[in-house]
Amino acid sequence: MIQRFDGPYHASHIIGLQWCERREYFKTVVNREAAFRSFPAMLGTAIHACIAAWHSDGRPELDSEEAEQWFRDALDVEENTPNHPDEAILPVFWPSDDRDKDIDEGVKEFAPMFLAYTQHPFALSRDFEILGQEIKWQMIVPPRPPYLFEGRIDQVRRNDSGQIVMVDLKSGSMDATVGQFSLDHSIQFLTYALALYRGAVLEDLRGQVPAIVQFNLRDLIPYQKRQARRNGEENWTDSYREWFQLHVQTGPQGGEYIEAGEHRGPGAHWSYPPETLLLSHEKLLRDYVQPFRIGRYRPHYSSTSCNYCAYREECRKLSDGELTEMDHVTKQAAKVLAASGVELAEIMD
Question: In the chain, which residue ranges form alpha helices assigned H by DSSP?
């Protein structure tokens, strides 16, 4: 039976619903244990842990070997720690089926990002005070019935000028270059900024509209073409040049073309949301989570999302009995499902 979910909600839930409502249903509502843990997600968690520990330890100077060891240690902790204290440790899905090889490649890719962060002016500046790192928060969005949202903010700073700055660290390849439009209207960042504005993050910051920094760690390492990795070249860095060209430059976000060997950007990308935007976003939050409230979760079939979805087998079982009734299933979706072993009695145009 399809179930409702009354929260607490995360910004990641909203993004997940936009990606695929069905996947988010299995992940959040059913709370069905995934079949495996994502290695790329482990890499991201490990570099966040390294940066938080580096700040807490007084920002020590590191060389490349030390940075690599920090990252290996953090990755080892992440591999052997369950997502929640009362859960078992899930097996990791190793992309190459070779654990040691994947770890070595992950360290080779991520340790330089960590080292570059420790040498960046944004990290080394003495013109700010860190008010908190990895801060968990909860916020009630009115009116009745109350909608409870929660999350975690990577870092909150106060500059010498008194300005409050909310920092979000990004290490994924799809975040390598950011358009200003996307940054200014990010669901995640506006939700976090609203929580800070409402005093849910730190009570003494209630009523203050923060500046937002998306710090892209991949800005700090040289860009190389994607095929360099496929061709076995040594000094590769995974990127998304094709996506960047097709979707960023041609969209409203704008963008700047980059060449192989160049650094992608400054690292720190700033946004200054006005108070009116935060208040408008507060009203929209309730609409975003309506699939949870009404208990209707539509699948979004695509070769990319389905092939890498940890819930694809559960989705297949649920889909077998309902696909002929769904008016939004397309012939393209049928092809994707057929490749996965799902048969459709009828395809509706």
Answer: 11-19, 21-24, 39-56, 64-79, 99-118, 121-124, 180-184, 187-197, 227-230, 241-243, 275-288, 290-294, 303-307, 312-319, 331-339
Instruction: Outline where 151-289 has alpha helix (H).
Output: 180-184, 187-197, 227-230, 241-243, 275-288
335 occurs within a structural domain: yes
Q: Which amino acid is at 305?
A: S
Q: Which residues contact 334 (CB under 8 A, 6 or more apart)?
A: 344, 347
User: Closest Cα partner for 311 from 13, 26, 82?
Assistant: 26
pTM of the model: 0.76
Provide the pLDDT confidence category of residue 344 given band limits of 50, 70 and 90.
Answer: very low
CB 273 within 8 A of CB 279: no
Residue 305 lies in a domain: yes
Same structural domain, 144 and 276: yes
222, two tokens: 């040289």
pLDDT, one tens digit per residue, over 46-68 is: 999 999 999 999 999 999 999 99
User: Is 169 contained in some domain?
Assistant: yes
Q: Parallel, antiparallel, or unpaired for β 268-271 and 211-216? A: antiparallel
Residues listed for the chain: 349
**Residue 20 is assigned to a structural domain of this protein:** no
Summarised one tens digit per residue, pLDDT across range 150-185 is 999 999 999 999 999 999 999 886 544 456 777 888
Q: How many domains, in total, are found in the chain?
A: 3
Are 341 and 311 contacting, i.e. CB atoms less than 8 angstroms apart? no
Domain co-membership, 163 together with 114: no
User: Among 91, 119, 147, where does a domain finish?
Assistant: 119
Together in a domain, 157 and 243: yes
φ, ψ of residue 299 in degrees (nearest 5): -80, 155
Instruction: Please compute, for residue 170, the number of CA atoms within 13 A of its CA located in the half-sphere on the CB side.
Output: 20
For residues 58 and 91, the answer to whether their CB atoms sit within 8 Å is no
Quote the pLDDT of residue 1: 54
- Span 77-96, mean pLDDT? 78
* Pairwise CA distance, residues 64 & 108, whole Å: 11
